[in-house]
Amino acid sequence: MNPTRDLLAALSSLAALVAMESFTGFSLEALKSKWARHPELLAMLPALMDFRGNIALAHSSRMTTAEHLGDSDRAVESTVAALLASLLIPPIIALVTRWSYGGDLGTLVAVALLTVVSVAAVVTPATIGVVRLSLRLGADPDRVAPAVTTALSDVLTVVFLFTLSEVILL
Amino acid sequence: MRRGLVGALTSMLTVSALLAAWSSYVGSFLARLEAKLEHNPGLAAVLPVLMAATGAAASSVGSSIATHVHLGTVSARRVAYDTAVQGSALILVTLAYTLAVTLTFSGRSSLVTTVLLSATLTYLLAVLVAVISTFASVRLGLDPDDVVGPVVTTAADSAGILITLLLAPG
After folding, report:
1. The domain that contains B129 carries what CATH number?
2. Could you tell me the residue ranges of all domains in chain A?
3. What is the ipTM of this complex?
4. Enclosing domain of residue B90
5. Cβ separation of A54 and B150 shorter than 8 Å?
6. pLDDT tens across A114-157, in order?
7. CATH code for A3-169?
8. Is A21 part of the contact surface with chain B (CB cutoff 8 Å)?
9. Count of CB contacts below 8 A, A vs B?
């Protein structure tokens, strides 16, 4: 145990995460007027962010293992599973939001699905890229990929949710 | 053990669906307490960062416990050390970010008190969840590496929203 080194490592990774997540926070603050008009989107936001973050965590963790093992089949399976999960879970989130808060179910399903698929289209290849780049640079992807990919997922989920809902609700 | 695409998808879907349903339910509280976000300038900018940083700090503790469980070297001293290191980093980073947000949005000084108190309580709760979920997954025959991260981040997000909004004035 080396408290100074460990504290510096923890501070560095958390500072990087906060720098990326601050964009999410500032976007949310700037979009106040939009979610004040559609609070059901605000009700759905934590679930969408959690879900995308969890998929990014699982995908990056599995990709790291696959790269360490040199197992390309495992990498492909994990990527396909991450994409399929992105199609199957959003309707459940919309349904629970409708049940626990309210809102139009069709709109909630459409917004949730389009948001998650759009985020997945960016984050899934980004995860593969971050894992491979970390290995190429000699860094342990287990220490880099989870924070980067979950923060990227959060930022994009907020931006896509309110951008796409604006188009759908027009 | 090789489980292939079906195994990867089943694992991702089971954990994600349960946690997404729970997050959707918690999200309804966020929408119901939306007035507090309106009455506390800067709170919407802090909330996503607070949730992500607390979840990341507690996940790191959970990941370390899981590693030491695998290695057979887990101890109360090790858990206390990791909790102290990650907790110190979390408080420093959160304090710096909240001060920046307070200055940017002309927020009240109560924002700093609310966020620091919420970060501390949420973090301690999330670490407790990390310890319990690690040993519960081992007892249930699951790999804690697959379970602890998503469970801890979801617990931190849920508790973070509720505690912050309940502590916020207005």
Report:
1. 1.10.357.20
2. 3-169
3. 0.78
4. 4-167
5. yes
6. 999 999 999 999 989 988 888 888 766 766 677 778 888 888 99
7. 1.10.357.20
8. yes
9. 191
